[in-house]
What does this fold into?
Amino acid sequence: MSDSSAVHQSDPVLVEVLRGGLVESRHRGAAAIVDADGKIVASWGDIERPVFARSAIKPLQALPLVESGAAERYRLGATELALACASHHGEKSHVEAVARWLDRVDLGPDDLQCGVHPPNDAASAQALIRAGEQPSPLHCNCSGKHTGFLTTARHFGETTRGYIEPDHPVQIRVAQALGEMCGIDIDGAPRGTDGCGIPVFGLPLAAMARGMARMADPHGLAGDRATAARRLLDAMAERPLMVDGTGGFATVVMQTVGGKARIKPGAEGVFCGALPGLGYGVALKIADGAGRGAEIAMGGILERLGVFDEAARGTLDATLRPVLRNLAGTVVGAIRPAATLLG
Amino acid sequence: MSDSSAVHQSDPVLVEVLRGGLVESRHRGAAAIVDADGKIVASWGDIERPVFARSAIKPLQALPLVESGAAERYRLGATELALACASHHGEKSHVEAVARWLDRVDLGPDDLQCGVHPPNDAASAQALIRAGEQPSPLHCNCSGKHTGFLTTARHFGETTRGYIEPDHPVQIRVAQALGEMCGIDIDGAPRGTDGCGIPVFGLPLAAMARGMARMADPHGLAGDRATAARRLLDAMAERPLMVDGTGGFATVVMQTVGGKARIKPGAEGVFCGALPGLGYGVALKIADGAGRGAEIAMGGILERLGVFDEAARGTLDATLRPVLRNLAGTVVGAIRPAATLLG
It folds into this structure.
C-alpha cells in the first residue's frame, strides 16, 4: 500500500451533523461538477485520486444493455431500464418486476449471482420475517442491474453462468463502456470486487463526473450510445421509485424535480448525478464512506446548481436538511450541507 | 455557530477501510490516553475540542447510583451494575434483568423515559416481529442506565417522573460527578440532548479520558467514590455480556482480556476505556461519527498499550482487523487501525 494514511491529505468538510449547540460530527469529502467535454465547473478536495464508484455509476454500467440492442429485442420498458440503474429496496414492486423480466429472458432467480440480503425497505423485511420466508436474490438491491447483465448475455448467446467474472464478455463490455465514457484507461485502473460480486474500478471523481455529464449531454457520443444514454436517463426520471425505493433520498428528489436531475447513490459514500438541463455530471465521495453524508452533500450541490425551484425547495426541506430526533421524538439536532458546498 | 467548517482543523486518519488494492474509506479522529493525574500519555488530533461523550461515559454516569448507597440498599449485584453502565442489545437476558430490577424498586417499564427502539440484537428483533409484539422501553439499549437513575431517585425519595430533565436531582448529581471526575466546569460546558432524552455535555477528550483514568486508578478519590468506581468496573469485567451484547465489540474484547480493560462505546463514534492495570483512561471520537471506526481505533489503542497477550491477539484477530465479505461470502476487503495509532 503506497498510500500513507498519516500524510493522506484531508478533504474539506462537506456535511455537518449538529446536536444542541455543537457540530457533533463532520463528513469530509471530495466532489466534482464537470461538463461533457471534461471541463471542471466546480470541485472540492482531491478529485484525481481513484475512488470505487460502487453502485453510483449503474447508469453507465447499463449502457451495453441498451446500445447492444438487447433492451429492444426483449422489449424492455422504463421499469426494466430504471431497475438496471437501480439499488432498489426489495419492495414487492421491485421484486415482482425483476421476476417478470427474468422470465422474459427465460431465466430465473437462481441465475442471479448477486447474492442475497434482506430487503432494504424495513416494512418489506419485516413482512418476510412475519411470513417465515427467507430473502431471495430478487430482494438484493442489485438484482435489476444483474438481470440487465444476464439479458445482454442472452442477447449475444453467451454462457450466463459466471457473468460477474472480470473476463466474462458481459463485464468486458461494461468495463469498456466505463473507460470510454469516463475517458480513462480502464485496464490501468485499480481493481476490487463489489458487494454483488462484479469488478469495481478505481476512477477519479473528475472522470466519473465526466462520464455522467456525457450521459446528460450525449452530443459527442456515437448514435447508439447517445440513444442508450437518453433512454436510461429518461427511464430513471419516469420510474424514480424503481431506482431507489419508498422514501429513499434519490427517489424523493427525482420525484420532485422531474427530469432536471437523475441521481444515484453507491455504497461507501459515493453519489453520482446527471443533470440534462445543465449538461453537467456530478460525482462525490464522502471520505469516511457515510451514506448520510453523501445524500446531504448531493442535495447541497443540486441546490447550488439551482436544480430546486422554490416549490421543490419547500417539498424537499426535510430531505435536504433533516432534523435529528431522539427516541421520544424531540428534535435534538440536524444535518446540513457545509457552507463551502453551497458557494 | 462559531465553528467554521471550512477551516475546521483535520484530525489524523485513525482507521482505514480497504477494498481490493485501495483504501476505499478513511476514518479520521482524535484520541487521548491519560493518567489519573491528567498527564497525557499519548494523543492524536484535537483533544481539547468539546465532544458529546454520549453513551461512552455511562460508567461515570453510574457513580451516584453506587456512592449514594442506593445500590447497597436495593442489593444490586454485578448484573445490575453492569447494566447501569451498558448499551445493551435488548436480548432476553438484558430485558428480563432490567424488568426484575425495576420490580425491586417498585417501578415498571412505564416509568422508563428512555424511549423505545427495536432490540439492537438482530435475532431478538426478529423474534419480536415473528411474535407480533412491539418493543418496550425495556428493549432500549439505555434501559439499564435509566433504571439506575430511577433507583437513585427512589433512594432519595424524589419524584421519579421527569428524572431525565436537566434540573431533576438525578441529573444534577450525574452532572456533578462528571464535572468532578473529568476536572471541568460542567456548568460552562456546551449542552445537548442524548438519544435517550438525558442531557449531554460537551467534554474535551482529554477530560473524558481523565475521568475514565480516575475510575481505573481511584487513589485520589474520596472513599465512597473510589469504592463506587471499583465496584462498577468490576461489574463490567464480571458481566461483559450485560454491558454490550452477544457478538458486540466491547463484550468480545472484555470477555477475552478479563479485568485488563473495561471499554464502552457511545453513539456518533465515541469510545471510552478504563485500564486498571495501567491506571490509564482512554477516550476517542471518530470525527464522522462512525461506530466501525471507533471500534477499530479502540482496538488499535489497546493493542498499542499491550493489553492483548499473544493468545488474546489470536482470539480477537477477526474483531480487531475484520475482513469485509461481499454478499456471496468472498473476502473483498478489510478494516484496520492506521499505522499512526499503533505507534
About this structure: Residues 1-6 of chain A have pLDDT under 50 and may be disordered. Chain A touches chain B through 62 residues (CB under 8 Å). The CA atoms of residues 323 and 329 of chain A lie 11 Å apart. The two ends of chain A are 35 Å apart (CA to CA).
